[in-house]
Amino acid sequence: MKIKSKYSPGTRKFLQYGLILPLVLWLFMFLIVPYVNLLINSFWKNGAFKVEHTFTLENYIKFFTSGTGTNRPVMVLLDTLRISAIVMVCSILISFPIAYFINFKVKKNKQLFYMLAIIPLWVSYIMRAYSWRIILGTNGILNSFFMWTGLTKEPIDAFLYSDVSVIIAMVHIYTPFVLMPMYTAMEQIPRNLLEASKDLGCGRIRTFFKVLLPLTLPGVLTGGTYALALSMGDFLAPSLLGGASTSTKIANIAQLQFGTSNNWPYGAAIGVIIFVLILLIILVMGRLEKHFSKLEPGKE
Amino acid sequence: MSRKLIELKNIVKNFGKNEIIKNISLDVYEGEFLTLLGPSGCGKTTILRMLAGFETPTSGEILLDGEDLIPVPANRRQINTVFQSYALFPHMTVRGNIAYGMKMKHIPAREIEERVDEMLALTQLESLADRKPAQLSGGQQQRVAIARSLVNRPKVLLLDEPLGALDLHLRKSMQIELKRLQRKLGTTYVYVTHDQEEAMTMSDRVVVMHEGRIEQCDTARQIYKHPATRFVSQFLGDANLFTGTYVHGDGEEYFCQDDGAADTYAVRPEKIHFVLNASKGMPAVVTESTFMGNVYRNCAKLESGQICFALDDRPYNPGTEVKIFFAPEDACRV
Amino acid sequence: MSKKFSGSTVLVIILAVCGFLFLYLPVVVVVMYSFNTDAISSFPMSGFTLKWYKAMFANTELIKSLRNSLIVAFIGTGLAILIGVPGAYGMYKLKFPGKKALEKMVILPMMLPGIITGITILSFLQLVGVVQGAFAVVLGHTTFLLGTVLPQVYTRLRQLDRNLLEASQDLGAGGAQTFFHVILPNIKTSVFGAALLSITLSLDEIPVTFFLNGVFTTLPIKIYGMTRNGFTPEINAICSLILLASVAAVIISNKLSAKEAV
Residue A184 sits in which domain range? Predict the structure, then answer.
């Protein structure tokens, strides 16, 4: 009796690749093509009644030359970068003690504490942004608290609708993104490494700087990149919490082009610029992270 | 004389630029217990995987019962594998695991139940039938893996170092168990291991492999007594290799070491004799004497610097001067 | 060596506690003030009431937007699983060039801010003639939900015994049989956990939805509109309930993944 396969080897191979076909197709259609399309769009002309498919650089020129003073898109971009960098640093500073605490000072129920720290991430985004509004507002919790305790007589307007409120809200929103990779990185440091270091005579502080910090760095970089990249493109928090000038981040400008300003090619150009910038940030951070990862003992 | 069940003809297997199997031809006879023996990386597992259908030879033929086996996909071959990691399905009970093969081939439920019960009895797993693999010990998991394969009545059972993870005592009893099953069911076994003692005790024939080639293929005893190559003799235990010639003197033949001589002889440790106060023989100084449980392993350093291993029922004090003797019939030219 | 009360430990504890307080302050505030009688959230609370919750349930627009969100979440997650699980399995089983690139591409929408995904898909859909609306939103959500489903399932697959697939084949199972009888049972809790996570993410999503929805309102978009208009504690009530649901979902998802990891 001859043993035969149900399908020829060729058909079988084809069927197997069918597993990844939908995935590849979907990504092609909804990721690759749209990105390429955006790029192409950014070189089109925004005509009076409709978009004209003629090649032009005017959108990019507009980006780099239009506006005055701080309204210039380039300045807005730099300002957004500045704010995002502050958000990233603050997020790291807040996350670090928490991650360190759970990892090294908590003996039982580490998982529970970790979940507690992460739960704010799973609270609705809109809720987190909105909540700072009611806290920082003129009649909000903070002001009324100060007045109730007698610290101030009048409400302080400056809390809300300023750089500070946007930063505070974004730090709150993006801290969990930093906390997670940082915690994971710390968790993976072999405990006996720290013991050994102290054993060899390094004081606690030196161990901290020479051993703990470098090993946590990859996690910090990952989380920081995440926070930086995502906050750069955030247009919701700024519009809810920002003042007249600070409510306009680069993402807001982009968003307007697809709405009231109705200049899709220009919006596409801004989109491309943001995309490229963030991609660069991710690549650079990725390189840095790889460099620091090489210091990990397990990888040598 | 049983017939040839599997024929491997001029098998070559390359992984990218690496020649893993250089050119192998081998016949497996029906009903035999054949072991592929060799160090890690010699290609023995690759051969097994080609028989199972998980790898395809770069060139060469594999015949099963005279039919071309290569185009047949793994799931349609009447060959089953016992994996080194057992690969039991964690979400199924022992019974479920054993029944799996038959279920996939749509064998009627009643027959499945009968055969599973039969196999459970045969491998003494009845009391564990409803447990999941995580609730079993290593040895029990091992038996389930074997039962799961054998219940399908394969023409050939492939075993990939199945006893590696077990402790010594368990390994010994499993070796007996495997042999018993093989005898009872008459299944052809192709067994892979790097443990030469295991190979020797269980197999009908042993194929010694090294770097993708077959060094020797014969019964265990023949390989042991008459190793065909230097590698084989060294791989199978502490073989002593002496280069030199036999010299006549005083009515006896004794061995004289000579690096320039044409012949090298392999002598088993248990055939080496240390003799005190002898005039002839190779001079040596005892370096070590270790108790092995039932024998002593004595090492002595010859004038040439070579260390010589002997098994004896008595120890020797390090530093003792001895002469090394062995009978010509115990020396095998390699 | 008693380090328990050393200076640095105390410092760490203080900083960590401050951090926790910062993270939880808004959460606590929003929940507390959902019960406040006063419409304006001032300190101290003026009284306790359930009227905002009642108002919330009576708000038909709100309920409708919740329904819309759930539809999108379930369809989006469903698609992400139908595409992502076989995709992960294919990546696990097959050898092909560009696997790493594929992995990175799938999570790209998660790494980039939603606005990028939003405007790129919007422009593309405009090109092919798909209007903004429910369909567009589902397409957008599915795209980034793949970045949740695929990595999780792929990671789980790689935890499985390498030989399970081969053992199944060896015993006579065909490709589909192997998938349904051996692979799926061993990844099902990861798939479920990823699904739960996806639903949660989809329900909370704003930026991508913002560009694709037209007049099709989802819950977070509706809330966003409400926040721009004023301060009703009705918003607090909604957010508190969302909080409850999200937390429950994540805890369940986590417990399932942990239980399955062998």
Answer: 73-294
